[in-house]
Write a structure and sequence with these properties.
Shape: globular
Mean pLDDT: 87
Low-confidence stretches: 1-18
Order of helices and strands: HHHHHHHHHHHHHHHHHHH
Number of strands: 0
Largest sheet: none
Helix content: over 70%
Radius of gyration: 21 Å
Distance between the termini: 89 Å
Number of helices: 19
Length: 349
Amino acid sequence: MRHSGPVPRDLHPFTASLRGLPPLLPGLLACAAAVAAALAVHALVPALPAMTVAVVLGLLAANFPGVSAWTSGPGRAGLGFAGKHLMRSGIVVLGLKVSVVDVLGLGWPALLLITGVVLVSFAGTYGIGRLFRLPPTVSLLIATGFAICGASAIGAMAAVRRIRQQDTVLPVALVTLCGTLAIGVLPLLTGPLGLGPQLFGAWVGASVHDVGQVVATAQTAGAAALAVAVIVKLTRVLLLAPMVAVAGLHHRLRDDSGGTMPPVVPLFVLGFVAMAALRSTGVLPAGVLEAAALLQDILLGMALFGLGSAVRVRELLRTGTRALLAALAAWLLIAALGLGAAVLMLPGH
């Protein structure tokens, strides 16, 4: 006897597995268009990092009349997917920027100084956040982003501590704002402070948050400054894995809820470590590394647009004033610590 009714879609496993994809497409396509625009702006104005432009475009999309309703409605699923999953994929690819050989080339005294800056920056920024009565999770994420590598570090810490994605939006906005502030302010201080190119580069690498922001800031003083800045910055990036592991272990020891615990080190952070190890072997040709750098920009740019699209400026102004003051205080602290470390690393420069 022939069945006259419709065939249940769940009887088709492949079709069922794809049912979740169409709702993601509008948001993901918007993220792709935004990152293409951000890369184009960066190509035209190299001083503007593509990641910063991506966040700004997300903010505009979230607050522009007409578009804002779309970002909170039909586009939300894809934008949220990008903010979480593409961020993690971008962190994995970020590992291909880190060469342990280059980092070790700085020498142990410099490595200890940079590690000290990261640890004191983290503790100091967390303390500032609590002093300004910010919630512990917000203080933790701001401290992580400011001390290590911006939005990427915030995403990694949020994963290991099971912090909701919406709680990462404010820290990402603040780390982007202060990193952008550094691009404009730090080069103006080169003359008054009497900094040579290498010393300025070390200062930038030790104190500016995101890798792209470091490049944009250091290149204003030439190739010598840029080379030092990138190596110092990538040393800070390399500390992402141990910092996240310690945070994960601390979370496990203190959590007595009996629920399922996240891994001490998330899989995507292990991927970051594996990519760094692969880069350090020196077997990857320059073309592969360039393609990986572009892929990282695309993934993180899409993720940052997705996160930026969740920021409502009215709510940010209403609830984020204390957070903004705390972030500016932390920015000054890290700038001072970074300058001190740079002077000790490169005396006479």
